[in-house]
Amino acid sequence: MPDTFDLRDWIGKPYAANGRGPQQYDCWGLVLAIAKAAGLDYPEFIIDARDCRAVAGAMQRACADSATWLPLADPEPWCVVLLTTENSHDHVGIAVPSANSVSSVNSVNSRSTHFLQTTIRTGSILSSFHDPRFIHRIKGFYRWIR
Question: Helix, strand, coil % (nearest 5) of the chain?
Fold first, then answer.
């Protein structure tokens, strides 16, 4: 596991459906890549990212599985952030440690205030949990426990 995590390495990457990097990502691909950089091994979902209904179903089933995903009351570094788009749980981001632009990867017990996500319109961006554009779309925080 690296000692530091530089957010600048992840911001500004273009979105691509089913993108798994290193230059383009869909939302789950970005979560997978960042989790791997943090030393975590999250599961792969083989779903066409353009099929929002399939994505939503997979996300809801995965998050309902308490044997693999632990719901959290508050975000913590490297947890998955489940968000809605158009009334469906079909988008994710990943919480990052709170700091300026470089943070300790090992700060798992600290509280996160930001998350990384990617969308077709924005590519990968750093977003605040308190941003009015996202605060009502955040539906949960989950830690992988398997």
Answer: 20, 30, 50
Domain boundaries, the chain: 4-144
**CA of residue 108 relative to chain centroid, distance:** 15
Radius of gyration of the chain from Cα atoms?
14
Strand 114-119 and strand 123-128: pairing? antiparallel
Number of C-beta neighbours around residue 14 at 10 A: 13
Q: Which CATH architecture has domain 4-144?
A: Alpha-Beta Complex (3.90)
What is d(CA 97, CA 113) in angstroms, rounded to the nearest whole number? 8
Residue pair 133/97 in contact by the 8 Å Cβ criterion: no
Does residue 43 carry a pLDDT above 80? yes
**pTM, full prediction:** 0.83
